[in-house]
What does this fold into?
Amino acid sequence: MTQEKAVSAVTGGGSGIGYSICKALTTLKHTVIVLDRDIEAAKRTADEINQEGGVAKAMQLDVSKHQEVIDVFAQIKNQFKRVDVLVNNAGIGSVGNLDQTSEDELDRVYNVNVKGVYNCAFAAIPYMQEQQSGVIVNMASIASTVGIADRFAYSMSKGAVLTMTYSIAKDYINQGIRCNCVAPGRVHTPFVDAYLEKNYPENKTEMFETLSKSQPIGRMGTPQEIAALVKYLCSDDASFITGSNFPIDGGFVTLNN
Ligand SMILES: NC(=O)c1ccc[n+]([C@@H]2O[C@H](COP(=O)([O-])OP(=O)(O)OC[C@H]3O[C@@H](n4cnc5c(N)ncnc54)[C@H](O)[C@@H]3O)[C@@H](O)[C@H]2O)c1
It folds into this structure.
């Protein structure tokens, strides 16, 4: 891949970590396709990049819709001729242990966090095979590898993101496609703010502190810190890296004991 001509698609690029990933890929001079089910949010990201001299296009996409995903990636290929990078970042949260998780809730989380990753990779991989090159970075979580209390459906989904990463990396290694995932601890984004607003409306500040301190490093991560790692994995500097999971969690997984 010639980095300067690369076309990158980022799901959930309208907010939080995805927004920062779009901005970071722009610094590699990639053309960035900002995909989000919230088209206004995607447009804000793309407009900002274009105003700053980068190249970006916003497209509406619900990653859970199989045919819609195929159609949108076909449009990207048609218009930009390539699909070099796919960042499967779009995801939703879910609070509750198993007996509090309804069938509908399990399906809702599965459809976005698991099937969404499958759908986008399913749509993008044929173009990467054609090019004999491509990079996929999936957004896993600390929940992929360690039990997090009261996050049954979310943990299920992020465990699947980790194992889909290994499977994709193995199956396409001989076709020039690399696939890795990153596993953030808590990152201060609208995702966390919405969680606090919904579950702790009376004591948001206190809970924010508790969540911050659950990272041994004493704070939450920033979207920019996650984006810097994703940018590296998408770049040619990471050309020897595939089939790996990168914790980025202030020590949560290894030091919390
Ligand atoms: N914030 C954290 O603490 C944290 C920690 C670990 C992993 N993650 C993961 O990082 C990713 C991004 O999280 P964030 O905190 O930036 O969230 P966020 O809520 O700020 O942003 C998520 C974006 O994804 C979009 N989105 C949601 N469902 C979609 C769908 N079906 N199709 C297309 N777009 C959709 C939303 O519109 C939003 O713009 C998620 O996969 C999340 O699970 C977040």
The chain is about 50% helix and 15% strand. The CA atoms of residues 17 and 96 lie 23 Å apart. The two ends are 42 Å apart (CA to CA). The first helix runs from residue 16 to 26.
